[in-house]
Amino acid sequence: MYSYKSRIRYSELDESGHLRLESLLDYFQDCSTFQSEDIGLGVDCLKKRHLIWVMSSWQIVVERYPDLCEWVTIGTIPYDFKGFLGFRNFLMTDEEGRRLACANTIWSLLDTRTGMPVKAPEDMQEKYVLGPKLDMEYAPRKIRIPEKMERREKVRICPHHLDTNHHVNNGQFIRIATASLPVDRLAMDSSETANLAVGGSAMDNPGNGGRVKQLRAEYKKQVVLGDVLTPYTMTEKDGRTIVVLKDETDSICCIVEVR
């Protein structure tokens, strides 16, 4: 497993002094980027080959949110290629090696000249040495959408939402989705999740027992500068909260589920 060590920064915390889930996602994303750069398959290489890896889905499971200044190890391991799809796990552990969080991701490789999916070249598959899948409970890729949802305030895409591919970064989709949730939408029974609540973001919740335990995201359509997204939200009886982000043509761009 490829890995690096880091220390939890003040800028990555919520008001309780714990790591934000959005920041955890950034750690994982950075880890895969570091690995790609280190093996010669980074941003510049892909650009020259007219290729781009696009996120198809996230599943993040959190056991404990680390505290300010805590040392952590972030790791990643690709475990399968299937046609144009790549499968990758992530792991964050504390100084004693105990699991803090893990994730499963599915990626699609696209040709930037045609926008069509392409099979990963042989040399790419050789450099990404595959390993065993992490031991975790794997959720389905598809997220069920409720029939009735509440429309929230529109969001215009600005430069800070974009990455080097000139599209909305997958982490920014999560930030837009969680920011659309009102305080009462993530309130749950205290015996189950100890008053999960949303502040400026759905992940800004004190403590560990009452915070989001799992996030899933399904990416459907790329979004660029100047586009407008409209969030639709709903919390169901089973405790899951769904956010659907639609563009101005009413097409679904991203679906996010938090528990």
Structure description:
The protein has 259 residues and is of the alpha+beta class. It is built from five helices and eleven strands. It has helices at residues 21-38, 43-48, 122-127, 170-179, 190-193, and strands at 2-7, 51-62, 71-82, 85-93, 99-111, 150-151, 155-156, 214-219, 228-235, 241-246, 252-258. Strands 1, 2, 3, 4, 5, 6, 7, 8, 9, 10 and 11 form an eleven-stranded antiparallel β-sheet that branches. The chain is globular. It starts with a strand and ends with a strand. Residues 184-209 have low confidence and may be disordered.
What value does the Rg take, in angstroms? 18 Å
| N-to-C order of helices and strands | EHHEEEEHEEHHEEEE
Query: Which shape, going by the Cα principal axes?
Result: globular
| Number of distinct beta strands | 11
Overall mean confidence score, pLDDT: 88
pLDDT below 50 for ≥5 consecutive residues: which ranges? 184-209
- In whole angstroms, how far apart are the ends? 28 Å
Biggest β-sheet: count, sense, barrel? 11 strands, antiparallel
- Structural class by helix and strand composition: alpha+beta
| Tally of alpha and pi helices | 5
Strand content: 25-35%
Helix content: 10-25%
